Amino acid sequence: MPKVGFYGAGKMAFAIVNNLLSAGLCLPEEVAVYDKFPPALEKYAHLGVRICRDFSSFVPLAEYVFICIKPQDYSALQELRGHFETGTFVSIAAGISTQQVCSLLGQTVPVVRVMPNTPLTLGEGAAAFCANEVVSQEALSFVKRVFESGGVAMQLPEEQMNAVISVNGSSPAYVYLFAKSAVEYAAQTGIDPDIALQLFCQVLIGSAEMMLRSGQTLQELIEAVSSKGGTTLAALQVLYDGGFETLVKQAMAACTERAEELAQQQKTGAVGGTR
Predict the structure, then answer these.
(1) I need a surface site. Which of 86, 120, 171, 266 has the fewest CB within 10 A?
(2) What is the distance between the alpha carbons of residues 232 and 253, in angstroms, rounded to a whole number?
(3) Could you write out the DSSP letters of every residue in 166-211?
């Protein structure tokens, strides 16, 4: 089995470790975790994985190194120079290209770039990934299985990785904002917010299943709910009049532009934000 190291021990790293152990892709003793902030490592104690206080104690041995730090911290990868001989690096930072990872590490290495999302922590994630030309098919298959253990994983060309952040990486926040607005309106009408949230969440689950399994186009699904002169059309007309579709596309474009900015700022050492 592969030996896997984690450079960074935040929430996403913890979710990935949990998923790969639960899926039997690694034994606990084959996983090592390092973080500059020691308290971040405390939650790993019960998993039986190796907790490291020094990255050089596991990076040289790891077949896979998951880089789980924020984009603005990526300059720290320069510390890894000279501390590895082989291994595939897996980067989950928004806007950081495979070439930038190689540049920071000081040589061309196998890099898989992944954009996961927070539902991965519940095993319901949606991850997009790409790889540079030196990643082996075996390594790519393993990384894909790691993220499939926490949901769905889809491969894309790297030139689409910044744009896809708006589709799966940041999009849970759009859904939460939609839900927040719906629940707040329900409360204004006297409906218990907890009941409204449960109903709305089931609507999201059911609607997602309809999109995936009904065989109908998105427009056909909209029309199936919309009776002439009915309540749904009254609601939809407000959204159309307010430019809902245009606003969503503009928001997604802003997300992509920010990813491009992060990439440029990392090059100059001036990165100041995450997704």
Answers:
(1) 86
(2) 28
(3) IIIISHHHHHHHHHHHHHHHHHHTT--HHHHHHHHHHHHHHHHHHH
Evaluated on CA atoms 129, 132, 133, 139, the torsion sign reads negative
Contact 83, 55 (CB under 8 A): yes
- Phi, psi (deg, nearest 5) at residue 214: -75, -25
List, in sequence order, every beta strand (DSSP E) within the chain.
4-7, 31-34, 50-52, 64-67, 88-91, 111-115, 125-131, 151-155
Pairing mode of beta strands 111-115, 125-131: antiparallel
Domain boundaries, the chain: 4-161, 171-253
Which residues, including other chains, have CB under 8 Å from residue 115's CB and lie 6 or more apart?
A: 92, 94, 127, 128, 129, 161, 164, 165, 168, 169
How far lies 55's CA from each of 67, 70, 88, 90, 110, in Å?
11, 17, 16, 15, 19
Prediction pTM value: 0.91
Answer yes or no: CATH 3.40.50.720 is held by domain 4-161.
yes
Q: Of the candidates 73, 17, 22, which has an alpha carbon nearest to the alpha carbon of residue 43? A: 17
The mean pLDDT of the chain is 93
Query: Taking Cα atoms as reference points, which of 114, 140, 108, 148 lies closest to residue 128?
Result: 114
Note whether 106 and 81 are within 8 A (CB): yes
pLDDT of residue 269: 62
* 38 Cβ contact list (under 8 Å, min separation 6): 53
Q: Three-class SS of residue 151?
A: strand
Q: Report pLDDT for 44.
A: 96
CA–CA distances in Å: residue 114 to residues 66, 91, 92, 180, 255: 10, 6, 5, 29, 16
CATH 2.40.30.30 fits 171-253, yes or no: no
| Count of all residues that appear for the chain in the document | 275
